[in-house]
Amino acid sequence: MSDISKMLGDTVNRLFSDRVTPELLTAAEEGVWPGALWKAVEEAGLTLPLVSEQRGGVGCDWLDARVVLHGAGQYAAPIPLAETILAGWLLDRAGIEPPMGPMSIACAAPGAGLHLFRDADGWRLDGVCPRVPWGDAAAHLVVVEEAEGAVRVALVARGDYHAEPGLNMAREPRDIVRFENAPAAACNMAAGLPANAVTLYGALIRSVQIGGALERTLQESVKYANDRIQFGKPIGKFQAVQQSLAQLADEVAACGAAGTAACAAVDKSLHSNNSADVWLRIAAAKARTGEGAGRGASIAHQTHGAFGFTYEHVLHFATRRLWSWRAEFGTGDVWAAELGSRVVEIGADNLWETMTATD
User: Fold this and answer.
1) In this predicted structure, what is the pLDDT of residue 335?
2) What three-state secondary structure class fits 30?
3) 239 and 175 in one domain?
4) 98-102: long-range contacts, CB 8 A cutoff, minimum separation 24
C-alpha cells in the first residue's frame, strides 16, 4: 500500500466511523440529505482523488482511490461519493475542471441512447436516463456520448434537467432524469474513453464498493457469532458456523482482489496508453463481485438468524446495498455472458496468456 493510500484509508476510516451512524443512515433513507457528512468528506479532499492537481484534485491513481471507494461501501456512506469520484475523473480526462459539490453519472437505457448535439449556443442534450444515482440531489451530472465522430464528456447543471425521484432496494436515490434541449455547462472530447465509459467504469466503482460492503458483513457476522450465546457458548465456537464464516471470508478476499486487479488494469492502461486489458478486468470484477454479493449476504443473514432481518440491526444497511449494487451498471450475469463471448473471441491458444498477463 502506498503512503497516499494509507493516508486516504486512515482519513476514510476516521471520518466514516465517527459520522456514519445508524441514525444518519436511517435519516438518509427517510429523505434527509446528510449535508454535514458531505461537507466533511469534501473538506477532507475525498471527492476528487482521481482529478489532476492542476484541476483542483489530488492526482491519485485508481489503486489509491480504491480505498475511498472501498470505505464508501464498507460504511454504507449515504452520499454520492463514488459517483462524484468517477464523474471528476471523466471530466479531468476531457480537460474540464470539476465543480465543487456532489456529482453523479448518467447513461441511457440499453438501446435507447442520448442525443448530444451542438447549436449556435453550444452543446445540448436530449434523452432519458433511468436509475441515475442521486440525480435529484447532485449539483451536476456527467454524461459520456458520441457526437461529431468523437467521444465527448458533457457536464450538465442540476437546474437544466428534470429528475423524477426513485429508490433502489437500499433506499438510495435512483432517479429518472430527462434531458430536454438541456445546455451543457461544459463539453469536451475525451481521447481514450469508450462511448460506454459510464457503464464500464460504473461497474468498476460498484465492484469495489461491493468488496467494502462484504467486508462489513464479515465484521458484523464475526462480532455477532462471538457475542451470541447458545447452548452455553458463543455460536462462533460451533464448527458449522466457523465454516460459514470462513466461506464469507473467502468471498471478501476474492471480491477485494477482483476490484483491486481491475483498478490496477486501469492504472496500467493510463500509463501505457493501452486499454485492451481494462474491459476484461472490469468485466471479471463485476461478474465475480455480483456472485459474491449474493453468497456473502446469504451467509451473513444465516449467521445472524432472524435478528439480522430486523431494521434495528445494522446488517441490512450492508446487505441491501449488496443486493442493489450487484444489479447496477450491468448484473453479474450480463457481464459474465459478455466475458464468455470475449473469451471465445480471444481463442483457446491465447486465453492463458491473457489471463496471466502482468505487463
Assistant:
1) 95
2) coil
3) no
4) 98/48, 98/51, 98/55, 98/56, 98/57, 99/139, 99/140, 99/155, 99/185, 100/42, 100/139, 101/42, 101/138, 101/139, 101/140, 102/38, 102/134, 102/137, 102/138, 102/139
Could you tell me if 104 and 134 are in contact, meaning their C-beta atoms sit under 8 angstroms apart?
yes
Mean pLDDT of the chain: 93
Beta strands in 11-149 (DSSP E): 103-106, 115-119, 122-133, 140-147
Residues 121, 247 share a domain: no
Q: Is the pTM of this model over 0.70?
A: yes
State the cell numbers at 113: 441512447
Beta bridge partners of 145: 152
Residues of the chain above pLDDT 70, percent? 98
Could you list the residue range(s) of the whole structural domain that residue 78 is in? Answer: 3-189
Pick from 154-158, 267-271, 337-341, 347-351 the range whose average pLDDT is largest: 154-158
pLDDT (tens digit per residue) in 186-226: 999 998 899 999 999 999 999 999 999 999 999 999 999 98
Last residue of a domain, one of 189, 217, 252: 189
Q: How far apart are alpha carbons 278 and 289 in whole angstroms?
A: 16
Last residue of a domain, one of 168, 189, 210: 189
Structural Rg of the chain based on CA atoms: 21
In this structure, are residues 105 and 90 in contact, taking their beta carbons and an 8 Å threshold? Answer: yes
The domain tally of the chain equals 2
Give me the amino acid identity at 312. E
